[in-house]
Amino acid sequence: MSHVEKPGKIVILNGTPRSGKSSIAAVIQNSFKGVWMNLGVDQFMKMTPKSYQPGIGLRPGAEHPDLEPLIVTMYHALYESIAIYSHLGLNVVVDVGHHDGYSVPRDILKECSKILNGPEVLFVGIRCPIDIIMERRKDTWNRGYNPDGTVPRPVRLWQELVHVPGIYDLEVDTSILPPEECARIIYKRLNDGPPPSAFRRISEEVEE
């Protein structure tokens, strides 16, 4: 495989469902200079056979331990694909929800960070308070709080686990900023620096 002289840029948006990742990815793809390919979780799930759904979209809570080894492989395939696109000079934006809330620790984020140890990767944390997440869930899916007024366990687990270990190059809060402003901040960081380092730090993190 021939590589171009300058690899494509990579932006990975990490956050919970309904945090606004897809909206930011769409702005990046449609407004940033150059060709930006979207290899996010929704696109990957569309390629996944029905019997293996939700694939990499599996929420925390160890609900399907039988799928977990396959999900590890799927994440590796996704990140190998990201690397290939970048090596061929195509920019990539990825919206995902990394967590380690499986039946056993899987260390997927750390392993994926090692796959992308060549090209620069801007790792962006997409923050959003849980009350706003609940409003968006109700507006989108008509699903809200439990009858007793508590937050459903899967939603709470997403909120607790998606930002572990919390090592990012940049963080934005979509309850405060619209997608266009989040994308503008990301664009400025890509072009003005400093160089991203989150994935390197994650890959080198020593387990205690």
Automatic annotation (TrEMBL):
<keyword id="KW-0808">Transferase</keyword>
<feature type="active site">
    <location>
        <position position="42"/>
    </location>
</feature>
<dbReference type="InterPro" id="IPR012853">
    <property type="entry name" value="CPT"/>
</dbReference>
<protein>
    <submittedName>
        <fullName>Chloramphenicol phosphotransferase</fullName>
    </submittedName>
</protein>
<feature type="binding site">
    <location>
        <begin position="15"/>
        <end position="22"/>
    </location>
    <ligand>
        <name>ATP</name>
    </ligand>
</feature>
<dbReference type="GO" id="GO:0016740">
    <property type="term" value="F:transferase activity"/>
</dbReference>
<dbReference type="GO" id="GO:0005524">
    <property type="term" value="F:ATP binding"/>
</dbReference>
<dbReference type="Pfam" id="PF07931">
    <property type="entry name" value="CPT"/>
</dbReference>
<dbReference type="InterPro" id="IPR027417">
    <property type="entry name" value="P-loop_NTPase"/>
</dbReference>
